[in-house]
Design goal:
This protein is mostly beta strands. It has helices at about 60-65, 80-85; strands at about 30, 35-40, 45-50, 75, 105-115, 120-125, 135-140, 150-154. The protein is elongated, with a radius of gyration of 24 Å.
Length: about 150
């Protein structure tokens, strides 16, 4: 029997009991559609990556979102719960997730009506002390005032 010593050693056989490396956790948000949208893996919906180009009153904000043709999807204004879910931590500073193109501070329209029909709920990403739900203040606002709006898909 002749043994060759110039052959490289065989790689070790993987232990069948050992599990593979875990996959990194999936980010909640992903920038998609050539940077125009942000996909929310928790809500399974798309957000506009940018807010409307100017502040809008409530009626104009609804029209803006409902008539948006971005990426061929159907868009609408977010609910209070949807918009509040964007807050990424418990700090009191204004912050949208990094995947959004702007770090908006201030009042943002939701499509959630308040107890009076002439006002609508807005979310304040400054963390206004109006309430302490996830560090984001929410309050009713006159629909004729101009605020920022982000849109979300159905």
């Amino acid at each position: 029997c002749v043994t060759r010593t110039d052959d490289p050693p065989s790689p070790p056989t993987p232990d069948p009991i050992e599990s593979p490396e875990p996959s990194p956790p999936q980010s909640r948000f992903e920038v998609r559609d050539n940077g125009q949208t942000v996909y929310d893996n928790d809500l399974r919906r798309y957000w506009t990556r940018n807010s409307a180009p100017t502040g809008l009153n409530l009626s104009a904000a609804r029209i803006y979102c409902n008539s948006l043709t971005l990426t061929g999807r159907n868009w609408r204004m977010p609910s209070n719960v949807e918009l509040r879910s964007l807050k990424q931590n418990e700090s009191r500073r204004c912050q949208l997730p990094d995947e959004f193109a702007q770090n908006h501070c201030g009042y943002t329209w939701t499509d959630t009506a308040c107890d009076r029909s002439w006002v609508n709920l807005i979310v304040d990403f400054n963390g206004s002390p109006v309430d302490d739900y996830s560090g984001i203040g929410a309050l009713c606002q006159n629909p004729n005032e101009e605020k920022v709006v982000f849109c979300i898909t159905n």
